[in-house]
From TrEMBL:
<feature type="repeat" description="WD">
    <location>
        <begin position="63"/>
        <end position="104"/>
    </location>
</feature>
<dbReference type="InterPro" id="IPR019775">
    <property type="entry name" value="WD40_repeat_CS"/>
</dbReference>
<dbReference type="InterPro" id="IPR001680">
    <property type="entry name" value="WD40_rpt"/>
</dbReference>
<protein>
    <submittedName>
        <fullName>Uncharacterized protein</fullName>
    </submittedName>
</protein>
<dbReference type="Pfam" id="PF00400">
    <property type="entry name" value="WD40"/>
</dbReference>
<dbReference type="InterPro" id="IPR015943">
    <property type="entry name" value="WD40/YVTN_repeat-like_dom_sf"/>
</dbReference>
<dbReference type="GO" id="GO:1990234">
    <property type="term" value="C:transferase complex"/>
</dbReference>
<dbReference type="InterPro" id="IPR036322">
    <property type="entry name" value="WD40_repeat_dom_sf"/>
</dbReference>
<keyword id="KW-0677">Repeat</keyword>
<keyword id="KW-0853">WD repeat</keyword>
Amino acid sequence: MFNSSTEKIVPEIEESKKIQALQAGQKQIVDKPNTDVALEELKKTLNFIEMESILPKSYVSTLRGHNSEVSCVSFSPDGRFLASGSKDELIKIWNLAEKREECTFKGHNSGINSMAIF
């Protein structure tokens, strides 16, 4: 039923359909109306990152109390407290408004690697 020339044409037609579908997909991505908006937002973000890198680094205060490096922190949902975990096997709760330690949790057998406050 198929001769050799028909067998050669059918794959070419199928390949042509695949190429047209790919080209149509690429065209849809380029023609989306939100592309310009997305590009502008990306430019703003990159500009912010660039500006942030040249701004002077500053901080409000240092909370001292751990005997080893702090490996994780977590803020309370209301933003009033900070929990810090350290390689010294301690978790400390800090009152941020008063910039002081509220309490220390002891008893871990190894350094604290992660935590979360709910």
